Amino acid sequence: MIYYSTNDKNNTTSLKNAVVTGLASDRGLYMPSKLNPLPKEFFDNIQNMTFQEIAFEVAKAFFGEDIPENDLKAIVNDTLSFDCPVAKVEDNIYSLELFHGPTLAFKDVGGRFMARLLGYFNKQEGGSDLVNVLVATSGDTGSAVANGFLGVPGIHVYVLYPKGKVSPIQECQFTTLGQNITAIEVDGVFDDCQSLVKSAFMDKELSSHMKLTSANSINVARFLPQSFYYFYAYAQMKRLGLADQMVVCVPSGNFGNITAGIFGAKMGLPIKRFIAANNANDIFFNYLQSGVYSPRPSVQTIANAMDVGDPSNFARILDLYGKDHEAICKDISGATYSDDQIAETIKDVITRTGYLCDPHGACGYKALQEGLQPDEVGVFLETAHPAKFKDTVEAIIGGPVEIPEKLAAFMKGTKQSIPLSKEFADFKAFLLAQ
Ligand SMILES: *Cc1c(COP(=O)(O)O)cnc(C)c1O
To answer: In a designed cystine with 367, which of 60, 155, 277, 287 is the match (CB 3.0 to 4.6 A)?
Structure first.
C-alpha cells in the first residue's frame, strides 16, 4: 500500500517508511492511498466472529499487501490479548469498554500493534538498526506506548513527561519498567515535552546520529489499528439485535480515535453517524458550527487526555472529506462539556444506573444522552478505566474507586527516571550521548 502526505498527494512512501519516520517530510500526516471495502459476507457473519478474527480481516485490508498473512495474524493476535466488551449502561446507551488492556486505556491497542509491527520490520532487516521512539505524554500515551514496546528487540523508547504534572499512578506505569524504556522527567509542562520531541525530529544532526520516530497517533501504525474495535462494537451490538441505527460517540482530543472509526465507516462498517465529544477544548466543536478552524492553546480539564488545542488528526479528517465542511457535518456532530458538567454526569450516571464512567467516557455518555434520536442506539467509547483518575473520580462520587490488580502491580515497582531541563540543547546532548 502506498501512503501519501496530507500536505501533498504526490509525496508518497511505503508502509514501512511511514511507520519508521512517523511524519511526512513536508510535516503532513500519512494517509493510506485506498480504503479497501470489506465484503458483504464479512458483515453478514461478523456477529459470529471473535475480536481477533474481526481485527485480522480489517488488518488485512490495511496491511495485507505489505505483510504476509501469518505474520500479520501473529501481530494482531498478540496485540489483542484482552477483550473490549460492550456494557449496557441504560436503554439505548452502551459503553464500549476499551480499558481491559495492560495500562487500562484504549491506547494499549495502537501502542501494542505499533510495537509489534516495528519489531517485525526490524527483524526483517536483521535487527541491525536500532529505532528510537520518542513520546511526549501527559499520562496515558506514555504508559500505553512504553508497555507496548517493553522488551521489543531493536527498539528503544524515550518517554518525556512533565515533572509533578502526571498522577503517581500514571507515572509508575512508565518509570518502573526498565529494559528498553527510558523515562525523562522534564522540568516544565506538557507543551515543553511536546516541543522537545518536535525539535528532535527536525534536528538534522540528531537524525543522522539515530533513527527517530513518533508513537503518537500521527503514526499510522498506532492510528489505523484503532479501527478494529469499532468493527467489534458493531458485531457485539448486532448480536444484541441493536446495530441497525448505531451511533458512535468518541471522547476526542487529538482525534486519532474517531478518525480511525470514520475510516472503518468508509470501508463499509454500518455506523449511522459519529459524535465527537470535547471537554472545554472545543476547537473541533467550533469548527463544525462555523466552518472555521481556529486552534488555540489548550486549557486544563479533569478529562486531561483530551486537553488538546490543535488536534493533529484534523488534517486527516479534512483530507478524507476533501475539505468539505458540509460533508463533514453530515457524518459528525460535536458536543462540548465543562468540568462541572463532566462531574455532574459521572455522579448522575452512577446514581441512576450503577455504572461508573471516567471523566473522558462521561463526555461521551453525555453527548449521547443529549443527542440520540428515539430510533437510535448509542455506543460511547469508554477510553480509560476510572481508577486511572482515582482522586478526581473519588472526589466527585464521594466514595472509593477500587484499583484493579493490574494497576496496583505497577505501583510496587521502583521509579527510575532521568531529570532534564526543558532546554532542547540538554535533550539533544543527552540523545547524542546514547
Ligand atoms: C488519548 C485519550 C483520549 C483522546 O483520544 P484521541 O485519539 O486523541 O482523540 C480520550 N480519552 C483518553 C482516556 C485518552 O487517553
So the answer is: 277
